[in-house]
Amino acid sequence: MNVALFGGTFDPIHRGHLAVARAARRQLMLEEILFVPSGVPPHKRADAVTPFHDRHAMVVLATAGERPFVPSRLEDPDLVAGATYSIDTVRRLRRALGPSDRMFFLIGAVPRHRDVARRGRPDARGGIRRGEPPRILAGRVARASA
Fold first, then answer.
1. Which of 112, 117, 127, 134 has the most CB atoms within 10 Å of its CB?
2. What is the pLDDT of residue 108?
Protein backbone atom coordinates (compact mmCIF):
# COMPACT_ATOMS: atom_id res chain seq x y z
CA MET A 1 0.00 0.00 0.00
CA ASN A 2 1.20 3.54 -0.76
CA VAL A 3 0.45 5.76 2.23
CA ALA A 4 1.44 9.35 2.97
CA LEU A 5 1.77 11.23 6.21
CA PHE A 6 0.63 14.83 5.76
CA GLY A 7 1.41 16.71 8.93
CA GLY A 8 0.91 20.31 9.87
CA THR A 9 -0.63 22.62 12.38
CA PHE A 10 -3.82 22.77 10.28
CA ASP A 11 -4.86 25.92 12.11
CA PRO A 12 -7.09 25.97 10.20
CA ILE A 13 -7.01 23.34 7.48
CA HIS A 14 -7.92 24.97 4.14
CA ARG A 15 -8.43 24.33 0.44
CA GLY A 16 -4.71 24.57 -0.24
CA HIS A 17 -4.02 21.60 2.02
CA LEU A 18 -6.72 19.58 0.25
CA ALA A 19 -5.42 20.58 -3.20
CA VAL A 20 -1.91 19.45 -2.29
CA ALA A 21 -3.25 16.15 -0.94
CA ARG A 22 -5.32 15.52 -4.09
CA ALA A 23 -2.36 16.29 -6.34
CA ALA A 24 -0.04 14.07 -4.27
CA ARG A 25 -2.59 11.26 -4.39
CA ARG A 26 -2.64 11.40 -8.20
CA GLN A 27 1.09 11.88 -8.74
CA LEU A 28 2.27 9.33 -6.18
CA MET A 29 -0.62 6.86 -6.62
CA LEU A 30 -1.42 7.04 -2.91
CA GLU A 31 -4.10 4.82 -1.47
CA GLU A 32 -4.27 6.67 1.83
CA ILE A 33 -3.20 10.07 3.14
CA LEU A 34 -3.06 10.48 6.90
CA PHE A 35 -3.76 14.09 7.92
CA VAL A 36 -1.82 14.51 11.16
CA PRO A 37 -2.48 17.74 13.06
CA SER A 38 0.61 18.56 15.10
CA GLY A 39 0.21 17.82 18.78
CA VAL A 40 2.41 20.31 20.60
CA PRO A 41 4.39 22.12 17.87
CA PRO A 42 7.82 22.95 19.31
CA HIS A 43 8.22 25.96 17.00
CA LYS A 44 5.02 27.75 18.09
CA ARG A 45 3.84 29.27 21.36
CA ALA A 46 1.18 27.07 22.98
CA ASP A 47 -1.22 29.99 23.43
CA ALA A 48 -0.95 30.85 19.70
CA VAL A 49 -2.27 27.47 18.53
CA THR A 50 -5.88 26.30 18.60
CA PRO A 51 -6.24 23.25 20.87
CA PHE A 52 -5.44 19.91 19.21
CA HIS A 53 -8.94 18.43 19.48
CA ASP A 54 -10.47 21.49 17.77
CA ARG A 55 -7.91 21.31 14.94
CA HIS A 56 -8.48 17.55 14.60
CA ALA A 57 -12.25 18.18 14.39
CA MET A 58 -11.61 20.72 11.58
CA VAL A 59 -9.57 18.07 9.73
CA VAL A 60 -12.38 15.53 10.17
CA LEU A 61 -14.91 17.95 8.68
CA ALA A 62 -12.64 19.10 5.84
CA THR A 63 -11.75 15.57 4.74
CA ALA A 64 -15.25 14.09 5.04
CA GLY A 65 -16.36 12.51 1.80
CA GLU A 66 -12.82 11.82 0.56
CA ARG A 67 -12.26 8.19 1.54
CA PRO A 68 -8.46 8.16 1.01
CA PHE A 69 -8.07 11.15 3.39
CA VAL A 70 -7.80 9.84 6.94
CA PRO A 71 -7.76 12.20 9.94
CA SER A 72 -5.15 10.94 12.39
CA ARG A 73 -4.49 11.28 16.11
CA LEU A 74 -0.83 10.20 15.82
CA GLU A 75 0.25 13.40 17.63
CA ASP A 76 -2.71 13.72 20.03
CA PRO A 77 -1.32 15.22 23.27
CA ASP A 78 -3.48 12.74 25.20
CA LEU A 79 -1.46 9.93 23.55
CA VAL A 80 1.99 11.51 23.07
CA ALA A 81 3.71 13.38 25.90
CA GLY A 82 5.53 16.66 25.31
CA ALA A 83 6.51 18.39 22.09
CA THR A 84 5.86 16.43 18.92
CA TYR A 85 8.49 16.19 16.21
CA SER A 86 7.84 14.96 12.68
CA ILE A 87 10.72 12.48 12.75
CA ASP A 88 9.26 10.70 15.78
CA THR A 89 5.84 10.50 14.13
CA VAL A 90 7.38 9.17 10.90
CA ARG A 91 9.23 6.49 12.87
CA ARG A 92 6.09 5.43 14.78
CA LEU A 93 4.06 5.15 11.59
CA ARG A 94 6.83 3.35 9.73
CA ARG A 95 6.97 0.70 12.48
CA ALA A 96 3.19 0.21 12.22
CA LEU A 97 3.25 -0.39 8.45
CA GLY A 98 3.91 -3.69 6.76
CA PRO A 99 7.18 -4.56 5.03
CA SER A 100 5.71 -4.09 1.54
CA ASP A 101 4.02 -0.76 2.35
CA ARG A 102 5.53 2.39 0.88
CA MET A 103 5.36 5.51 3.02
CA PHE A 104 5.65 9.08 1.80
CA PHE A 105 6.04 12.24 3.86
CA LEU A 106 4.27 15.28 2.44
CA ILE A 107 5.81 18.58 3.37
CA GLY A 108 3.77 21.75 3.48
CA ALA A 109 5.49 24.64 1.78
CA VAL A 110 3.99 27.64 3.52
CA PRO A 111 6.94 29.97 4.05
CA ARG A 112 7.22 32.51 6.77
CA HIS A 113 7.26 35.46 4.41
CA ARG A 114 9.67 37.62 6.41
CA ASP A 115 12.14 34.76 6.88
CA VAL A 116 12.02 33.84 3.20
CA ALA A 117 12.51 37.45 2.13
CA ARG A 118 15.47 37.84 4.50
CA ARG A 119 17.18 34.74 3.12
CA GLY A 120 16.71 35.99 -0.44
CA ARG A 121 15.14 32.81 -1.76
CA PRO A 122 13.73 32.91 -5.30
CA ASP A 123 10.22 32.28 -3.96
CA ALA A 124 10.32 35.45 -1.87
CA ARG A 125 7.32 36.75 -3.84
CA GLY A 126 5.22 35.17 -1.11
CA GLY A 127 4.31 31.66 -2.13
CA ILE A 128 1.93 30.12 -4.61
CA ARG A 129 -0.17 32.33 -6.88
CA ARG A 130 -3.84 31.64 -7.58
CA GLY A 131 -4.31 29.17 -10.38
CA GLU A 132 -0.78 27.82 -10.08
CA PRO A 133 -0.81 24.03 -9.62
CA PRO A 134 0.55 22.81 -6.29
CA ARG A 135 4.10 21.55 -6.29
CA ILE A 136 4.38 18.22 -4.56
CA LEU A 137 7.28 17.98 -2.17
CA ALA A 138 7.41 14.43 -0.94
CA GLY A 139 10.01 11.93 -0.03
CA ARG A 140 9.70 8.20 0.25
CA VAL A 141 10.57 7.05 3.72
CA ALA A 142 12.83 4.03 3.56
CA ARG A 143 12.83 1.40 6.26
CA ALA A 144 15.83 1.88 8.54
CA SER A 145 18.14 -1.11 8.83
CA ALA A 146 18.80 -0.55 12.53
1. 134
2. 64
